[in-house]
Design brief:
By secondary structure, the chain is mainly alpha-helical. Helices cover 66% and strands 0% of the residues. The chain contains 13 helices and no strands. The protein is globular. The C terminus is likely disordered.
C-alpha cells in the first residue's frame, strides 16, 4: 500500500502510455488495412502500407517515450521490459507488479475504446482488433522471430541508456527499431514484442491463437539481452530503468543515472537521482 499511495501516478502513466499506443495501432491499422478505407484503396502495395504502419507506430513510441509522462514513468509500456529491469535490480518488486498490472489494463482499455468507436471496420478481418498471430511460416518461426526482435530491442535500450553520449537518443533508437520491425518482421509474427499489447487485442477480438508465443518469446528475448549485456559490460553498468532520464521528473527506481551523466561508471559509486522517490 505504501508503494501504491506514493507511486500511483507512474502506474497510471504506464497504463495511459500503452493505452495510447494501442489506440494508435488500432486507428492506423484500420486506416491502412480496412478494405473500405480510402487510404487502403489508394495504396495498393501491402509492403508500402506496412512500412507506413511502421513509421506511424515508431513515431507513436517515440512520442510516448519523450512525453512528460513517459519521462516520469520511464516509458516501459511493456511487461517484458519491466520484468527485465526487475531482473537487473533496477525496480522494486511491488513497483514492477503494479507496472505490469497497469500495462495489461491500459492495453485492454485502449483496444476496447477503438472497437467501440470504429466498430466493424476495426473488428472484421483483416484488421481484426490488430491481433498478433503467427504468419504462414508457422508458430515456430513466429516464436523465433519474436525472441530475436525482443532481444535486439532490449539490448539496444541497455547499451544506449547506459552510455553517456547515447542516453538521450534511446527513444529514437527504440522508435526506429519498432518501425523497421513492423515493416520487415510483421509477416512472421505480427510484430508484438509485448505480452500486454497482444493480450489487449486478444481480449477484445477473442482471438487467442498461439497467444503463449507473445508472452514467452518477448520475455525470454529481453532477459537474454540482459544477460548478454551483463556479461559484456557488467551489472554495475546498469544505472536506471528509465528510457529517458535527462529531465526534471522524479525517478522511482533504484537509480544511479548521475553516473551516466558525469561519465563516472566505477562500480559501487553511491549515486542516486531523486532518492526520496525510491524510499
Amino acid at each position: 500500500m505504501r508503494r501504491l499511495t506514493k507511486h500511483w501516478p507512474e502506474y497510471l502513466m504506464e497504463a495511459a502510455g500503452l493505452g495510447v499506443f494501442m489506440v494508435s495501432a488500432g486507428l492506423f491499422g484500420t486506416l491502412l488495412e480496412y478494405p473500405g478505407s480510402p487510404v487502403h484503396a489508394t495504396i495498393a502495395n501491402p509492403i508500402l502500407r506496412r512500412a507506413l504502419m511502421g513509421l506511424a507506430m515508431g513515431a507513436t513510441a517515440v512520442a510516448i517515450i519523450y512525453s512528460p509522462w513517459g519521462k516520469q514513468s520511464g516509458a516501459h509500456i511493456n511487461p517484458a521490459v519491466t520484468l527485465t529491469f526487475f531482473r537487473l535490480g533496477k525496480i522494486a518488486t511491488w513497483d514492477a507488479t503494479f507496472y505490469v498490472i497497469a500495462q495489461f489494463g491500459g492495453a485492454v482499455i485502449g483496444v476496447v475504446l477503438v472497437a467501440a468507436v470504429l466498430g466493424a471496420a476495426f473488428g472484421d478481418p483483416p484488421v481484426r482488433h490488430v491481433v498478433t498471430v503467427p504468419g504462414r511460416a508457422g508458430v515456430g518461426v513466429a516464436f523465433a522471430a519474436e525472441l530475436l526482435i525482443s532481444f535486439g530491442l532490449m539490448l539496444t535500450i541497455l547499451f544506449a541508456t547506459n552510455t553517456a553520449r547515447l542516453a538521450r537518443f534511446t527513444g529514437l533508437f527504440a522508435g526506429v527499431l519498432v518501425a523497421g520491425y513492423i515493416a520487415i518482421e510483421a509477416p512472421l509474427s505480427g510484430m508484438s514484442m509485448n505480452p500486454a499489447r497482444s493480450f489487449g487485442s486478444a481480449v477484445s477480438g477473442r482471438v487467442w491463437t498461439a497467444v503463449w508465443v507473445y508472452f514467452a518469446a518477448p520475455a525470454l528475448g529481453m532477459l537474454l539481452a540482459a544477460e548478454t549485456y551483463v556479461q559484456v559490460r557488467g551489472i554495475h553498468r546498469v544505472f536506471c530503468a528509465k528510457l529517458h532520464h535527462a529531465n526534471d521528473k522524479r525517478c522511482i527506481f533504484h537509480c544511479g543515472y548521475r553516473a551516466v551523466a558525469t561519465g563516472d561508471s566505477h562500480p559501487g559509486v553511491p549515486v542516486t537521482m531523486a532518492r526520496e522517490a525510491t524510499i
